[in-house]
Each structure stands twice: as C-alpha cells, then as structure tokens.
C-alpha cells in the first residue's frame, strides 16, 4: 500500500515537473562520502585558532570545489598510535568512511615508545580500515637528529615500510617545508613542536596532491 502511494506521489510530481519543462531526475542528489582523519595535535589545531588547521583548510577546499565529501576530524592532541588503534573501531562504525587519513606516531617517539610497538599499532589500524573497504592515506613523520641518526632513520622508514606492506598511499613527511625550512623556528610555536597557523597551508600542500588522486 505504502509503495503504491509512493509511486503515485512520484508520478504526480513527475507530471508537474514535466509541465514546467523539468525532469524528475533533478531531485536526485550525489551521494556524499566521508573522509575520516585520525591524528594528534598536528591535526587537532593545537595552539591555533579553530578553522586554521590543515584539516579545516582541506574541508574548505573540498567544499569550494563542490566535491561530494564530508570531512570528519577525529584527531586528539597528545594521541598515540595505541590511542588511535583503540578509538578506530568505533569511529569506523559510526562514520563508515571511504577514506581514512592516519596521522599518528609523533607522540610515540616523544615518549620513547619502541618502534616495533608503533609499527604494529599503525599496521593494525590500516588493516582495520581495509577490512571495511576504506582506503588509507598514511602521513609520515620525522624526528629531530638529537634522537640519534639510527633511530631517526628507522622512524622515517617505518612509515614507508607500512605503506609498502599494506599497500596504502603515503605522504613521506607531513612537515616538509615547515620543519626543514631555512628558518624552521619561524613556522613553529614557542614549544618548537607545533606549527603556527601560517604553516598549515604548507602542510595541506603536502597532503593534497596524494589525497586528490585517492578521491
């Protein structure tokens, strides 16, 4: 009965639209997909005004480009790979994203966590995303040389290795052009860890070329 009524309503509407020279297909809308960002303070706008971080800039850019994507920023300042792994299942179930951007690992290094633990956590996160058919973009990080050359190299290689093994897209160094600028202190807040607002367009310029291909 309800189906018949819906069909009749649609038919009446179609006739009305035809009289206006319009097609009933104008009622259809493009399906919106979700892009989920799971990160730490670098993605959570720590120390800067709301709406000036790279994720917010990404959302504005996609809106202006009229792309059928909704951006959900689930980043938390201070989060680690273990925290991200713990939060991810609920986030995937709630938002059902088509693309997941993972920006984690920096706090693991700051806290001296074993690289193997961080790598296992990130690998499990990628696998969980793939299990629900979500594509993954992994954002790589680097640590200062005072951590030791061997540790710094292995930390950077960790992201490359995960990307290759799990077949994900990768931005090798999220802070390229910021941390390695001629005067990097000019683009960082006084703690020399968190970028200033003016650095976030540079960060987005590192992410967007890879992300654009995925969308």
Explain this structure to me?
α3 packs parallel to α5. It is globular and about 50 Å long. 46% of the residues lie in helices and 12% in strands. Mean pLDDT is 89; it is low at 1-5 and 13-28. It has two domains: 1-27; 31-214, 3-Layer(aba) Sandwich (Rossmann fold). α6 links the parallel β4 and β5 (169-171). The protein starts with a helix and ends with a helix. It has 215 residues and is an alpha/beta fold. A five-stranded parallel β-sheet has the order 2-1-3-4-5, sandwiched between helices.
Task: Give the class from helix and strand content and strand pairing.
Answer: alpha/beta
Taking the alpha carbons of the first and last residues, their distance comes to: 41 Å
Strands, total number:
5
CATH superfamily of the largest domain: SGNH hydrolase
For the sheet with most strands, the description reads:
5 strands, parallel
- Quickly count the domains: 2
CATH architecture of the largest domain: 3-Layer(aba) Sandwich
* Radius of gyration from CA coordinates: 21 Å
Fraction of residues in H or I helices:
40-55%
Beta-strand percentage? 5-15%
The helix-strand sequence is: HEHEHEHHEHEH
How are the elements arranged and paired?
Elements: H1 2-19, E1 33-39, H2 54-64, E2 69-73, H3 81-95, E3 99-103, H4 106-110, H5 115-131, E4 135-139, H6 149-166, E5 169-171, H7 200-214
Parallel strand pairs: 1-2, 1-3, 3-4, 4-5
Describe this protein with a few key phrases:
alpha/beta, five-stranded parallel sheet, 7 helices, 215 residues, 2 domains, Rossmann fold
